[in-house]
Amino acid sequence: MTVVPSPVEAIPSQHSQQTSPVVYCAAYLHGKKLADIPIEAISDYLENRQDVFIWVGLDEESLHLLKQMQEEFGLHPLAIEDAQVAHQRPKLEDYGETLFIVLRTVYLLDGRLSFGETHLFLGERFLLSVRHGYSHSYQRVHDRCEAMPDQMAEGPGFAMYALMDFVVDNYRPIVDALEERFGALEDALFNARFSREGLQNLYELKRELLLLRNAVVPLIDVCNALVRFHTNIIPRETRVYYRDIHDHVIRIIEAVDNMRDMVTAAMQVDLALVTVGQNEIVKKLASWGAILAIPTMVFSLYGMNFKNMPELEWVWAYPASVGFVLCACVFLYRQFKRVEWL
Predict the structure, then answer these.
(1) What is the signed CA dihedral for 14, 15, 16, 21, rounded to 10 degrees?
(2) 3-state secondary structure of 216
(3) Fold exhibited by the domain 1-151
(4) Whole-prediction pTM value?
(5) Where are the domains of the chain?
(6) Is pLDDT of 237 > 90?
(7) Which of 101, 79, 224 is nearest to 164 (CA)?
């Protein structure tokens, strides 16, 4: 198979537009890239050069190569089965000499979150990444690692740290974009009347924050396990880097939780404003009802068949009745205006 020296990942396409599988396969010696190699040569490099480790990257179109990767690296069939299917939760599984790690990648597409996955197989002398769905290009990860030969000399554990750190760092712009979106919704909350669309947008934002949190929170346990255990795969010198990822994850979770609380408060404020508006309408209706009750009561008397009604014979009876009604209505109107019911 012809090896394409560029990295496996491309953005923002969910499925590569190329006709051949995109494969990144390189050998590293003492922290420096030795060569791009065909995948058929992996076994030869691992057997004949003890200081070499192999870094392989696959995408969705090259999943058929996983069986070959299983033979080359001795991967567990259950891990291969998980790697062939997306929709895995973020996790770390120990298969003896190999670790299987699932990361959720996030990408903004038309202002909405789109999720992908990156599956990692880590051994003492190899790192295999399998990408599903959306993610940013990993070219910068390769460039960063090749610019740090001293750290890369510590083995594939540092390369996996670089990949995980890149995925986690890309959560931060997503959080910032969601914060901007929330700021716009918050401004509209107080500058406009209630609308079902505004409340729906707040609900969708809260749902996306929950999805993002579900993608980030499991990384706490993953990082803790990488720092404390698996000494046969991850050397002591490399563990400090995973503590740095753990710190970044905590910061992102705190930002997401704070924003979720603010969104919940905004939704409650929105509903409270609706209640206040309804109360204002009820007060206005009650005020006008009280004002109109006076002329209704007075003039309804004239529709009754009284045998003796002295004011009917009085020449000023009608003007006096109308004047009384007008004065009473004006008095009530001024009272309701004073208490801001009208």
Answers:
(1) 130
(2) helix
(3) Beta Polymerase; domain 2 (3.30.460)
(4) 0.72
(5) 1-151, 282-338
(6) no
(7) 101
